[in-house]
């Protein structure tokens, strides 16, 4: 009796790929069904997935950190697969993320048309976006690429808060957020192709707990788009030092010499934010740093950044981070407790 074909999972990599993503995905996926029985019962089980690394030409290369990669195939050797994962492919937030991978873009369209689930991790979503498969769809990537998606892929609804975006799952498209989102992705893929129980067992082996709170607690306000709009640039510089002032948008409008409607339009064009959203983002960033390191009460933190009403502060903060100020402080204080004994050790 012929053995049942294993689902084929293909990992697409390039020199711009992180070794941690590529080899992390490979190690966890290839272990599905095999490692847990070995660790619990002393007898390895059967590997349940056929996992292969591919690149444009199939030739050995070095990825980020000068780590060697030996692909098992070129993309032209793979016409069909159950799932194709576009690993992260680092791109500066100021680069034009198009035209770098023409062969990969064409191949991804082909394998998706042939029935494959197409998945991306972190900056791999930029490559997937270039295929057009994400047009008029929801997608995620690392939070730092939000502005890049708005500038270069305006047809895509960017889900800044998502670690794993499953909104387009029915059309065989899934996108994952930051680099470590591959943890969540492996659990999803193993559950999809091997079953829920195997996914749980594999997560136990690798201590994978997922990012249930999403990306928002980790995101940082990135440097706004470069602007040649003098009045707006001046207001950005001013508000960076005066974000806690009362009625900040009114004061920026007055400073600019523009009427409110024109100011709002030009401010959004220059920064990607409505003026009040920009102020709130600045305030939340300052509050996050204070909650991470200071001993001030949560209400005092809110007052220090411009919110005399504690309820208003909590509401704005949770909208920006997905967590209450108290929950945020608790989460990142745990990290500081791990790091604190080593602070200054290498200075």
Shape: globular
As for the CATH topology of the largest domain, it is Rossmann fold
* Low-confidence segments: 339-347
Largest sheet: 7 strands, mixed
In which order are the strands of the major sheet placed? 5-2-1-6-7-11-10
As a percent range, the share of helical residues equals 40-55%
User: How many DSSP E strands?
Assistant: 11
Keywords: Transcription, Transcription regulation
Protein name: Helix-turn-helix domain-containing protein
Domain HTH araC/xylS-type: 233-331
Organism: Sulfitobacter aestuariivivens
What's a concise summary of this model?
The chain is of the alpha/beta class. The chain has two domains: 211 residues, Class I glutamine amidotransferase (GATase) domain (Rossmann fold, 3-Layer(aba) Sandwich), CATH 3.40.50.880; 111 residues, Arc Repressor Mutant, subunit A, CATH 1.10.10.60. It contains 14 helices and eleven strands.
């Amino acid at each position: 009796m012929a053995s049942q074909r294993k689902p084929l999972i293909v990992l697409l990599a390039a020199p711009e790929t992180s070794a941690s993503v590529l080899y992390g995905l490979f190690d966890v996926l290839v272990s599905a069904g095999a490692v847990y029985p070995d660790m619990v019962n002393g007898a390895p089980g059967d590997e349940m997935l056929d996992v292969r690394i591919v690149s444009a030409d199939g030739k050995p290369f070095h990825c980020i950190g000068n780590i060697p990669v030996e692909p098992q195939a070129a993309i032209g050797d793979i016409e069909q697969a159950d799932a194709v994962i576009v690993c992260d492919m680092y791109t500066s937030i100021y680069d034009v993320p198009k035209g770098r991978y023409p062969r990969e873009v064409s191949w991804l369209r082909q394998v998706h048309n042939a029935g494959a689930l197409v998945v991306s991790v972190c900056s791999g979503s930029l490559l997937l976006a270039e295929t057009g498969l994400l047009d008029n769809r929801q997608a995620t990537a690392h939070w730092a690429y939000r502005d890049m998606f708005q500038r270069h892929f305006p047809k895509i609804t960017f889900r800044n808060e998502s670690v794993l975006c499953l909104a387009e799952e029915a059309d065989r498209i899934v996108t994952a957020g930051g680099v470590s989102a591959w943890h969540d992705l492996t659990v999803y893929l193993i559950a999809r192709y091997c079953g829920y129980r195997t996914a749980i067992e594999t997560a136990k082996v690798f201590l994978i707990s997922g990012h249930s709170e999403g990306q928002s607690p980790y995101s940082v306000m990135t440097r706004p788009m470069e602007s040649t709009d003098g009045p707006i640039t001046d207001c950005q510089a001013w508000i960076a030092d005066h974000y806690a002032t009362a009625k900040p948008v009114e004061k920026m409008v007055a400073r600019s010499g523009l009427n409110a409607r024109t100011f709002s339009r030009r401010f959004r064009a220059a920064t990607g934010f409505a003026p009040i959203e920009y102020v709130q983002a600045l305030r939340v960033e300052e509050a996050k740093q204070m909650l991470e390191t200071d001993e001030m009460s949560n209400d005092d933190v809110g007052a220090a950044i411009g919110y005399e009403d504690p309820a208003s502060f909590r509401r704005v903060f949770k909208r920006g981070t997905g967590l209450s100020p108290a929950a945020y402080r608790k989460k990142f204080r745990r990290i500081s407790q791990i790091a604190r004994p080593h602070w200054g050790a290498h200075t």
